[in-house]
Specification:
It is built from 10 helices and 10 strands.
């Protein structure tokens, strides 16, 4: 496994500063957020800027480990949904453009909707993610769905069902354990169920259980990173463990994006050491 950060927590930081800061801290990878209003919104990146960002990662020796681009799949306006589907396909195209030979970049999105809508709208998600998977397979990338507390897709059994229905190697789960932790589910059980079908991850810190919970910066809450890392290792996961700073945290008036990244690296890199887990890349892993 390797340790990465997501520019999700750096909405007001330019990509040059974000890459330089995270590489200097020692992160192995950096996930790129490509939706509005982030400065790296895919719609505003021309061909020259895309090439420059790719070189920026290479020059700093940090892996581009995935893209984050949420769209709203379970709205009521059919025309708007089709526009959202087109937007996500454009994120998949960007991933194919940026990835290196032999690499299969993931592009994550949440599903949206409400938790009480699963039974009535799950077939829509099979359709949408099936379309994404077909496109992803044709260009060599991977679409991933992120289960979310309070969303239509939020329980492990639902996740497994969705993956089985889509039934494509170009589709998997973007596994953020924090959403299951604040639902009060057992961490080891959830990891054992979902790590094998996960293409990428997010972690945060958190405190409390739905509906009274907070997402926090690593080191501020109750998340046991050593326990989590050991569970992921037992489950056979060998990809990136990617820290995400919630918008809930970013709304703080004194939020400092660079300080959050620094604290996150200190806390989670130490957890890797305490867990006895090497961050060396597997032989042949793409960068």
């Amino acid at each position: 496994m390797q340790l990465a950060y997501s520019t999700w927590g750096m909405q007001k930081v330019g990509i040059d500063e974000a890459v330089a800061h995270c590489a200097a801290l020692g992160f192995d990878g950096l996930e790129l957020t490509v939706q509005p209003p982030w400065p790296t919104d895919a719609a505003h990146l021309d061909a020259a800027e895309r090439r420059r960002i790719r070189r920026l990662y290479d020059d700093h020796g940090i892996a581009l480990c995935g893209l984050s681009g949420n769209v709203h799949l379970l709205g009521e306006d059919r025309e708007q949904i089709e526009r959202e589907l087109d937007t996500y396909r454009s994120y998949l195209d960007l991933a194919a453009e940026l990835q290196r030979p032999g690499q299969q970049l993931t592009v994550s999105t949440v599903s949206g909707g409400r938790k009480d809508e699963w039974d009535t709208r799950k077939d829509e998600l099979v359709d949408y993610y099936g379309r994404f998977a077909e496109h992803a397979a044709s260009i060599g990338v991977k679409a991933t769905a992120e289960p979310h507390v309070g969303g239509a897709l939020h329980l492990p059994d639902q996740v497994i069902w969705l993956v089985e229905q889509v039934n494509s190697p170009a589709f998997g789960i973007h596994f953020d354990i924090s959403h299951f932790n604040v639902e009060g589910l057992d961490m080891e059980e959830v990891v054992a169920q979902l790590a094998p079908i996960s293409g990428h991850t997010h972690i945060k810190d958190e405190r409390g259980v739905e509906p009274d919970y907070q997402f926090l910066i690593p080191g501020e809450g109750d998340m046991d990173y050593v326990r989590y890392l050991r569970a992921m290792e037992r489950a056979g996961y060998d990809g990136f463990i990617t820290i995400e700073i919630s918008v809930m945290v970013q709304r703080r008036p004194d939020y400092d994006a660079l300080a959050a990244a620094t604290q996150s690296y200190r806390v989670v890199s130490r957890a890797f050491e305490e867990a006895g887990i090497s961050r060396e890349r597997e032989a042949g892993a793409a960068s």
